[in-house]
Every structure is written in structure tokens, then in C-alpha cells.
């Protein structure tokens, strides 16, 4: 038994309307369940409950046992002073507010229908589950409901990603171009070097990039040096020139020396940090309003055009400094641009729209619908259950569904779990 069943019964009016009463035999009539609070504080705000003919308006707290009130130290928390009703599975002890007045307790275990309890237990039955709790019933869930839930989950995912963007924005004093560069650097670092590239990009004053962006050699030296790629031994003329230029820029701008180097191990050559930094250099050569330009793009093809660059000439026959390799162009692939859309462009546009007071995200969803779905074990497992993943918006939403709901057994906070429980009773 979990508290989420109490939340579900209260929120969806699954308690009988006529026979409810407190432990003191006071009649209880629920006029309005209020609004569920998922943050700190009582579980439901602004509820309206009639107790023994007296109408009360305030908050409702829920526990499996009444004694949990004291286990959670609510008696000392002023946020719980206006709780008008304590909804519990088992009323094992009297509970009092900070001022000494007793809080009415509604014990619900005797008011729950057998059908509801059985459906709830079946939902969490693990013996036949291989992926998620509702895998036996997910295929029968209404497509319209499921797709709308995915839209809400995608916005939820964007809200989570926006935290980093707004942190960077505050640190850069509202410099969106600087935030774009940092996010792109993280993206170009991929999973292996993403965290390292992020931290190094945060340590680089973007005004320096603005100053050297019209000088390709200085821009190359700045980024290769700052991201720790010149900390090797090499006698190539190109490398020596970069090293010399970076030493000059270090003295001129007081740059911080890298304390570590990016990782090459486990990466395919085309994803080596040397190649990615060269591509990033060529994106920024001569550009001064790149963020403003990206905010105007509507289609995936337009985004592809904006990122259609390749690594520098030296890298046509190199993957690392000083080591000759088979000659080939090192262009940014379409699949990598898809990742830029997913992890950089769309989160930035989401935050920029919020910054401007625009909460209409249909254009972002439309852009994500043009990007192919990711392929991983979670998405493949969802597809096997009857709801095919059509695009990246849906794959991102399903990742949030699995990580934030399925894996944490938050079935009754999920639109799918709620529908299944309602359908079976």
C-alpha cells in the first residue's frame, strides 16, 4: 500500500459520498478535493469539506497512518497549521495542530471498494512484469489520451532541461549567445566529454570568442587550447602554430590553463574531441549573431543548413595531432545535427520563449516531430507494447515517462495508470 492510492481516491472522487465519517463519528462530505500539491507542504490545497454540517476550506494532508504526522514532524511546521482534514488508511493515533486543536481524521480503508483495491494491486503485481507495471494493458490505452500525455511529458522534460539554461543565463548576465556556445560545446563533447566541455566552456569569457571570431587561426588556437587539446607532444607545423598562438592569447586575455584533457577512449574517430572542436570552430568563424539566426529557423532542413560545416583542412587526413590517417571529409552528420536540435536548439528556444512570456510551444513540438526517434532499449520496449514511436518528441517524452514515472512506480500520477485504474472499476 502506498499513499498514491489515497491521492487517487481523493482526487477522482472514489470515496462514497454519504457514509464518510471521522474517527469521532462526525459526518464528512467532500465538496471539493482542491488541487494536488507535488511540492513541499500539505498534499492538497484549497479543499472544501463539510464536517458535521460545518463547511471548512483549507488544506488536506494524507498518510498511511495517522502517526506519520509526527514521524514527519508536521506538528512543528507552520505550513500544516491550516490542515482541515487528515486522510489516512489507518487511524492509529489522535493528531493535534501546533495550537493544540485536534485535526479530524478520515480513515478510508473501510470505504474502499474491493474492485478498486484489486485493480490497484494488479497494477503493481510484479510476477509477470518484464518492463513496466502496465505492460499487459498499455496497448489498449486510447491513442488520443496517450499522445496528449506524451505532449505534456515532453513539456515536463523541457522544464527540467531549462534549469541549466537559466542558470547559464544568470551567470552570463543574460547573454544568450554565450549560453548557446556553452550548450553547443556540451553537445559537441557527446556523452564521453560533454561534462568536461561544459565546464571548460563555462570558464571561457564569450567576449573573447567575439573578439577573435574574425581571425580563424586565433579562434582555432583559442578553442583547441582552452579545451585541453594542445597538451600533447607534436612537431607538426600546424600544431606548433596553434600552440604559439594560444600562448599569446593566454597572456593577452589571462586565460586559465586546463587542468585535465578530454577523453578519446571509447570514441569512434569521427567523434574524437579534436574533430568536434574543429567543427565547432568552423561554426563560429565570422559569426556574431548566431543565436538570433537559430531562433528564426522553423524546419529541420533550415537547421541542417546552419550546421553544414566540416572540420578544417588539416583534419582531412588526421584524427589526432601528428598522426596521418586515410583522407576524408569530416562533416557534421545529419544524425549529429538531430542531437543538436534535441539537446541544444529546442531547449534554448523553449527557454527563450518563456523569457519573452510566450508559453505557446507548438512550433517546438512541430520541429521535434520532424526529427527521427532515438533508438534505445527503452523506446524499443515501448514500441513492442503497441504504441509506435513516430518522432523525437515522442521518444523524448517516453524517456521521461519511463525515468520519472514507470521506474519510480508513480503509476497513479500518470495519465495511463489513472485511466487503467478508472477503466477497471
UniProtKB/TrEMBL annotation:
Record Pfam families: DUF2851 (PF11013)
Entries under InterPro entries matching the protein: DUF2851
Source organism, top-level taxon: Bacteria
Protein name as it appears in the record: DUF2851 domain-containing protein
Organism from which the protein derives: Flagellimonas zhangzhouensis
Amino acid at each position: 500500500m502506498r499513499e498514491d492510492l489515497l491521492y487517487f481516491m481523493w482526487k477522482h472522487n472514489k470515496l462514497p459520498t454519504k457514509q464518510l465519517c471521522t474517527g469521532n463519528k462526525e459526518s464528512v462530505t467532500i465538496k471539493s478535493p482542491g488541487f494536488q500539491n507535488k511540492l513541499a507542504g500539505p498534499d492538497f490545497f484549497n479543499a472544501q469539506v463539510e464536517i458535521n454540517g460545518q463547511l471548512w476550506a483549507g488544506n488536506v494532508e494524507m498518510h498511511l497512518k495517522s502517526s506519520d504526522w509526527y514521524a514527519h514532524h508536521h506538528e512543528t511546521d507552520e505550513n500544516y497549521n491550516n490542515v482541515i482534514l487528515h486522510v489516512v488508511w489507518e487511524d492509529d493515533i489522535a493528531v493535534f495542530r501546533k495550537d493544540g486543536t485536534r485535526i479530524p481524521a478520515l480513515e478510508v480503508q473501510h470505504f474502499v471498494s474491493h474492485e478498486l483495491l484489486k485493480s490497484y494491486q494488479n497494477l503493481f503485481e510484479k510476477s509477470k512484469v518484464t518492463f513496466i507495471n502496465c505492460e499487459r494493458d498499455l496497448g489498449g490505452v486510447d491513442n488520443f489520451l496517450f499522445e496528449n500525455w506524451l505532449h505534456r511529458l515532453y513539456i515536463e522534460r523541457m522544464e527540467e532541461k531549462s534549469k541549466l539554461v537559466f542558470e547559464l543565463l544568470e551567470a552570463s548576465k543574460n547573454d544568450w549567445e554565450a549560453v548557446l556556445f556553452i550548450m553547443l560545446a556540451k553537445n559537441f563533447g557527446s556523452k564521453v566529454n560533454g561534462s568536461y566541455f561544459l565546464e571548460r566552456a563555462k570558464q571561457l569569457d564569450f567576449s573573447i570568442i567575439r573578439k577573435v571570431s574574425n581571425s580563424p587561426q586565433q579562434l582555432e588556437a583559442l578553442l583547441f587550447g582552452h579545451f585541453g587539446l594542445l597538451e600533447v607532444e607534436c612537431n607538426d607545423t600546424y600544431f606548433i602554430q596553434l600552440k604559439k598562438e594560444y600562448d599569446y592569447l593566454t597572456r593577452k586575455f589571462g586565460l586559465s590553463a586546463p587542468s585535465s584533457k578530454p577523453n578519446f577512449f571509447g570514441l569512434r574517430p569521427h567523434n574524437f574531441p579534436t574533430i568536434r572542436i574543429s567543427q565547432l570552430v568552423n561554426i563560429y568563424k565570422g559569426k556574431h549573431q548566431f543565436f538570433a539566426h537559430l531562433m528564426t529557423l522553423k524546419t529541420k532542413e533550415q537547421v541542417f543548413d546552419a550546421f553544414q560545416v566540416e572540420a578544417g583542412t588539416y583534419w582531412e587526413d588526421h584524427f589526432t595531432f601528428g598522426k596521418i590517417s586515410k583522407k576524408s571529409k569530416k562533416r557534421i552528420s545529419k544524425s549529429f545535427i538531430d542531437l543538436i536540435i534535441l539537446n541544444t536548439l529546442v531547449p534554448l528556444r523553449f527557454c527563450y520563449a518563456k523569457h519573452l512570456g510566450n508559453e505557446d510551444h507548438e512550433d517546438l513540438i512541430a520541429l521535434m516531430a520532424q526529427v527521427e526517434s532515438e533508438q534505445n532499449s527503452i523506446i524499443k520496449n515501448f514500441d513492442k507494447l503497441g504504441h509506435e514511436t513516430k518522432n523525437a518528441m515522442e521518444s523524448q517524452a517516453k524517456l521521461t515517462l519511463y525515468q520519472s514515472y514507470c521506474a519510480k512506480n508513480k503509476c497513479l500520477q500518470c495519465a495511463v495508470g489513472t485511466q487503467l485504474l478508472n477503466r477497471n472499476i
